[in-house]
Amino acid sequence: MKTMKLKGIGKDLLGMALLFLFLLLFLFNDSLNNSEMLNNIPSALINVNTIFLSIVLEAIPFILLGVFISSLIQIYVSEETLQRFIPKNAIAALIPAALLGAILPLCECAIVPVVRRLIKKGMPLHIGVVFLVAAPILNPIVFASTYFAFKDPFSQTNTVLYSRMGLAFVLSIIIGAIFYAVFKNNSQQLRGNVPVHHDHSHQYEEKKPTIFSRIRDAFYHAVDEFFMMGKYLIIGAFIAALFQTFLNRDVLQSIGTNDYSSTMVMMGFAYLLSLCSEADAFVASSFRSSFSEMSLVAFLVYGPMLDLKNTFMLFALFKSRFVLVFIVTVTIVVFAAIAILYGIIL
């Protein structure tokens, strides 16, 4: 218990340190640019700082909006309410589940414990999987962030946005159907007695919650999620800035011009960066000049479905067989679908 508390404190301190560093760079950016100290700073580092700040500044408003709406859902929407909208028929429930996932602004890390709770309350496993892969992409916050990140003033068509949303909807249904075929309605894939994220709703056990207590707890959740997602955004933006600044341009060009190699690279990149789905579009758009559109869509579809941080969460909350099947299924289905889609387009 003590070790878990220390780890939690360490993560919170890391998050605060990263956010504090970002604020310093943002507040003193103009001073640094006009300072004589720049003469002694390599231009590459200045470029890293510029790219890093531009990515984070574009993404922060969507992070704030996403965590606030997510916290309201956490407090006000019960699992029972969601279950009422899901048909009893296993196959017929796939499409409504994907549609319902479209109104839940939850990132890939926030959705994992929610899905676990839903399955424990009786939701079929394959429907939980649909939520797991659909909700982090098919929601209004991600739609808006992707639209603004890839908005082209010279064109009315935002192909990256439509490809991302269309693929996420179709693939969530396909992945859910695969899991139904593999596991049927077997919900015994959960690990027992595993602690989940702190839930302030336990405060309501004895007395009816007041509007003030609900607002307070909504802000608690929003702050928790902001620090959790903010540090991943900052790490991801920093790595992306380093990647673009220091990677040999010839290597980048050779990878980026080949649709299939660049798709695999960007899927791996999405997995390792573990960006919040509400902000990953701004990181992806920073690679527009180096990577193909096909690979950018792969980055935007694969990352929210599966990344490093939610892999750890999945192994903690679900049995290993389920997680391994999930990893293999999502990876193969996403790569194959994008290759087929862009094979037809191209």
From TrEMBL:
Tell me where it resides.
Cell membrane
- Which terms in the GO cellular component ontology are assigned? plasma membrane
Q: Check the record and name the Pfam families matching this protein.
A: ArsP_1
Topological category with respect to the lipid bilayer: Multi-pass membrane protein
Question: Which keywords belong to this entry?
Answer: Cell membrane, Membrane, Transmembrane, Transmembrane helix
Q: Which residues cross the membrane?
A: 51-77, 89-115, 127-150, 162-183, 226-247, 259-275, 322-345
Q: InterPro entries attached here?
A: DUF318, UPF0718
Keyword Protein transport in annotation: no
Q: Which domain of life is it from?
A: Bacteria
Which sequence ranges form a coiled-coil region, renumbered to this chain? none
Q: Which PANTHER family match?
A: UPF0718 PROTEIN YCGR
Family designation: Belongs to the UPF0718 family.
What is this protein identified as? Permease
